């Protein structure tokens, strides 16, 4: 999209994506102003200062924001905030950071991954497949490093991009060469007027601008995805992955073997050779393998990468074993599907630590798995009432309001051969800065036992 130089651009929100957007925008000749309602981290202030970018924190100067011709909205900012309502009323163009980065990424290719669960794991595995094959690429997006800052400071011929629904909400022209949609389950409905259809529409924006020579990789076993595909037109080449049937083009698992074909080469591999364990990770691995094959990466390199991939921090991360009790950090499990997947992959009796800011969770979803796998639940949050009410007739439930107490209670309840699993199923912001802070403090308290 061609823009006039010296156009006024305001970035709302000064975290990773906002800072990246500001740095790219000023590089491209925009007159940039950054506004954050909260406090800006010192490291980000240094970046803004060094780039000569004007900013404010601790509130929004409405007149200055409304003077902009383009707004880049950080993904954490809801449409319901007063400043966004004023921007919409004024009719100012609003885009996301990934849209801004896309407009200046040149001829580089993009693999974009979205879904309710498994995004980070799958994105990281795709990146590992690409780097194992020797491709010059960058791992960016919701996974932690700003897409826009990467484009500004160290452009690459290929970007592997994790995208949330919030980032997709404000795209205009963003078009991935390979789009991956892992699954869709209820999450973040408070941002979508509590209408599941709005959330589904947001996820499917990943395909909105694709052409016939692009690729769309999707989960054939996800009923919500399949229902939506019957009612919309996707122009790209649709390639499914599944565990329920054999497909000529795509990926499936049968009798412990993954069969995968996206281009001419067919890849076969024993699932017991996968570095990632658990049924949900078999889906993630199929999706990642298809993404690699769509780039014509050789099957030997795909197999090698799938075997050698190392699990991510805060995602089913082994911490240590104390007196025969295994401690696992799944702090990134911020919704109930993540908890379900975590429990499903564990074969030992489990003490489950969960809780935080509830997103309107329906805990009945976990009842059968809790009966089957869980010895006790330790609640960790300022308000544990909904978890207590959901499970106290099934298993012992203990309430705590600090990580130190939660780890101590879980250790007391566990015996040799058990697992203590932190998989909160909730947001972290009642007691922690974010899921990483929660996971790090969990590991500290475990090691202090």
TrEMBL record:
Matches recorded under Gene3D superfamilies: Mur ligase, C-terminal domain, Mur-like, catalytic domain, NAD(P)-binding Rossmann-like Domain
Catalysis performed (reactions): UDP-N-acetyl-alpha-D-muramoyl-L-alanine + D-glutamate + ATP = UDP-N-acetyl-alpha-D-muramoyl-L-alanyl-D-glutamate + ADP + phosphate + H(+)
UniProt subcellular location: Cytoplasm
Location (main, coarse): cytoplasm
One of the record's GO cellular component terms: cytoplasm
Gene Ontology molecular functions: ATP binding; UDP-N-acetylmuramoylalanine-D-glutamate ligase activity
Domain Mur ligase C-terminal, residue spans: 314-424
SUPFAM superfamilies: MurCD N-terminal domain, MurD-like peptide ligases, catalytic domain, MurD-like peptide ligases, peptide-binding domain
EC number: 6.3.2.9
Binding site for ATP: 115-121
Ranges of residues in domain Mur ligase central: 113-291
This protein's UniProt keywords: ATP-binding, Cell cycle, Cell division, Cell shape, Cell wall biogenesis/degradation, Cytoplasm, Ligase, Nucleotide-binding, Peptidoglycan synthesis
Pfam families, A to Z: Mur_ligase_C, Mur_ligase_M, MurD_N
Coiled coil, from the record: none
Pathway(s): Cell wall biogenesis; peptidoglycan biosynthesis
Stored InterPro entries: Mur-like_cat_sf, Mur_ligase_C, Mur_ligase_C_dom_sf, Mur_ligase_cen, MurD
BP GO terms, sorted: cell division; cell wall organization; peptidoglycan biosynthetic process; regulation of cell shape
Family: Belongs to the MurCDEF family.
Functional description taken from the UniProt entry: Cell wall formation. Catalyzes the addition of glutamate to the nucleotide precursor UDP-N-acetylmuramoyl-L-alanine (UMA).
Protein name per its UniProtKB record: UDP-N-acetylmuramoylalanine--D-glutamate ligase
Gene behind the chain: murD
């Amino acid at each position: 999209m061609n823009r006039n130089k010296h156009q006024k651009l305001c970035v709302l929100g000064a975290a990773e994506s906002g800072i990246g957007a500001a740095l790219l925008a000023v590089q491209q000749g925009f007159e940039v102003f950054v506004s954050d309602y909260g406090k800006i981290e010192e490291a980000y202030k240094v970046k803004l200062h060094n780039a000569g970018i004007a900013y404010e924190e601790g509130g929004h100067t409405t007149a200055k924001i409304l003077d902009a011709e383009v707004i880049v909205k950080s993904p954490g900012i809801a449409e319901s905030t007063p400043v966004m309502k004023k921007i919409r009323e004024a009719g100012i163009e609003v885009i996301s950071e990934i849209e801004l980065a896309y407009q200046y990424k040149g001829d580089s290719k993009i693999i974009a991954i979205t879904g309710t669960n498994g995004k980070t794991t799958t994105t990281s595995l795709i990146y590992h497949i690409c780097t194992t094959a020797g491709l010059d690429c960058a791992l960016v997006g919701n996974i932690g490093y700003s897409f826009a800052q990467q484009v500004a400071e160290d452009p690459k011929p290929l970007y592997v991009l994790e995208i949330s629904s919030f980032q997709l909400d404000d795209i205009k022209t963003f078009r991935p060469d390979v789009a991956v949609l892992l699954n869709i389950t209820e999450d973040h409905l408070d941002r979508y007027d509590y209408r599941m259809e709005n959330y589904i529409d947001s996820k499917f924006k990943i395909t909105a601008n694709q052409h016939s020579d692009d690729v769309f990789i999707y989960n054939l076993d996800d009923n919500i995805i399949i229902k939506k595909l019957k009612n919309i037109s996707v122009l790209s080449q649709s390639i499914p992955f599944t565990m329920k049937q054999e497909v000529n083009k795509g990926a499936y698992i049968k009798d412990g073997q993954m069969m995968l074909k996206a281009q001419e080469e067919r890849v076969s591999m024993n699932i017991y050779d996968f570095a990632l364990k658990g049924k949900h990770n078999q889906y993630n691995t199929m999706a990642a393998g298809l993404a690699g094959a769509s780039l014509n990466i050789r099957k030997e390199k795909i197999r090698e990468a799938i075997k050698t991939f190392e699990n991510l921090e805060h995602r089913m991360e082994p911490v240590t074993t104390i007196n025969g009790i295994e401690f696992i950090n799944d702090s990134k499990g911020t919704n109930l599907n993540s908890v379900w997947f975590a429990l499903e992959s564990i074969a030992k009796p489990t003490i489950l630590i969960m809780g935080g800011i509830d997103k309107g969770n329906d805990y009945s979803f976990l009842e059968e798995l809790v009966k089957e796998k869980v010895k006790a639940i330790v609640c960790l949050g300022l308000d544990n009432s909904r978890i207590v009410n959901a499970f106290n007739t099934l298993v012992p439930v203990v309430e705590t309001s600090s990580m130190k107490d939660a780890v101590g209670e879980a250790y007391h309840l566990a015996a040799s051969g058990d697992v203590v699993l932190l998989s909160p199923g909730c947001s972290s912001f009642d007691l922690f800065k974010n899921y990483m802070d929660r996971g790090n403090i969990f590991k500290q308290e475990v090691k202090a036992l």
